[in-house]
Amino acid sequence: MARLARRLSGLLLLIVLAAPVLAQPARPTPKGAWRGTGTVLAILPPPSDLHATRPVIVLQHDAIPGLMEEAMAMPFIVASPALFEGIRPGDRVAFGLKDVPDALLVISIERLPR
Ligand SMILES: [Cu+2]
């Protein structure tokens, strides 16, 4: 019985020590990928003045930790015009970015509550 108690206390200690590690986000952002938030300024399906063949979104984005430490307005190429569905200029959005060989690509867009 004492042996079991010792074992259990050892297990408890392990759980306490592991807690900070377990508290980390379940899905760390992979290398070459970022998450950002911002406001949609313009949605430009192709062809547009900014790109002949690819969809573009212009965002007033907040700081993107690890990528752009300052907020700014700028265009991004979007992986698919399907991502524009339900998104309008003026919307607050969260978005996913991925570094691909020819662009910094928006790969997801979710509308945020105002
Ligand atoms: Cu930027």
Can you walk me through this structure?
With 114 residues, this protein is of the alpha+beta class. The chain has a domain at 33-111: OB fold (Dihydrolipoamide Acetyltransferase, E2P). The chain has one helix at residues 2-22, and strands spanning 33-44, 56-61, 72-78, 92-100, 103-111. Strands 1-2-3-5-4 form a 5-stranded mixed barrel. The longest helix has 21 residues, at 2-22. Copper (II) ion binds next to β3. Copper (II) ion is lined by residues 61, 68, 72, 74.
Question: What structural category arises from helix and sheet content?
Answer: alpha+beta
For the largest beta-sheet, the strand count, sense and barrel status come to: 5 strands, mixed, barrel
CATH top level assignment of the domain at 33-111 = Mainly Beta
* Count of alpha/pi helices: 1
The CATH topology assignment of the domain at 33-111 is OB fold (Dihydrolipoamide Acetyltransferase, E2P)
Major beta sheet, strand line-up: 1-2-3-5-4
Shape: elongated
Strand and helix order: HEEEEE
